[in-house]
Amino acid sequence: MEKLLPEPIAFAGSMIFLSIAVVAFALLNPEFRLWLENTPQGLNTAVGAFAGTVIGLLAIAAAIVYHGRLKYGDKETAEAEEARVLAAAIHGEIVALTQWLASQAARAPDYRSNEATAGSELAGFATRPVYEANAGRLELLGPDLAAAVAYCHAIFEHAEWEHNAALSNGTVNGNGSLQTVEAKLRTTADYLAAFAKNGPGQIDQAGRDAIFATSEDDREALA
Fold first, then answer.
1. Three-state secondary structure along 83-95?
2. Which of 13, 66, 103, 111 has its CA 20 to 30 Å from the CA of residue 77?
3. For 132-181, how does the pLDDT look when each residue is reduced to its tens digit (9 = 90+)?
């Protein structure tokens, strides 16, 4: 849309310059002056009215362009601020998820104990209200970060279900991928924090490797 709206000051200036150039050329041209002197008064009035109308329309067009650019600029600013707020909110939620993963990975109870097995069933599932409410608005973060956020939530959900299933069965099989998923979430959280502070940016190759490098567990999560 921005490309369709020319710079209003430059547009108005160019129109004024063109009008002055036309008038100056006409007045300096002897043939035009002679034609103007011999033109009936009514025709002169009509030409003057037409020229005034053209100038008025040019002024209206410049005003429309100016206000259109202002409106577009306000919308663009609002969307940029909205994207940064969203990045900050998802960052906070992902940090909470990394803490949940770290706490679960660090527990490592003795699953041979019936008491430990019964207590481990209370691990539950982490809530993700910010992501669930804004999954359809991730495009505000740009393609790189939106993909990273969606990917990390997918593998987190898989690791969470796997971990809770292992707890319910009294085994430790679910703990294997928790630290890997935690590392991916922490990397994504760092990029979200940078976005919230500085605005849009791309994920570099090292970040892509840290987030998207797939293990067998990741492939199962995304299958």
1. HHHHHHHHHHHHH
2. 13
3. 999 999 999 999 999 999 999 999 988 888 888 877 777 665 555 788 89
Q: CA 204 to CA 194: how far, in whole Å?
A: 13
Residues in the chain: 223
Gap between the Cα atoms of 211 and 96, Å rounded: 18
Terminal C-alpha separation, the chain? 39
Q: CA–CA separation, 187 vs 156, rounded Å?
A: 14
Cα(99)–Cα(105) distance, integer angstroms: 10
Q: Pick the closest to residue 219 from 135, 159, 132 (CA basis).
A: 159
Distance CA 161, CA 100 (A): 13
The torsion defined by the Cα of 191, 197, 201 and 207, in degrees rounded to 10, comes to -20
Report if pTM > 0.85. Answer: no
Contact 105, 179 (CB under 8 A): yes
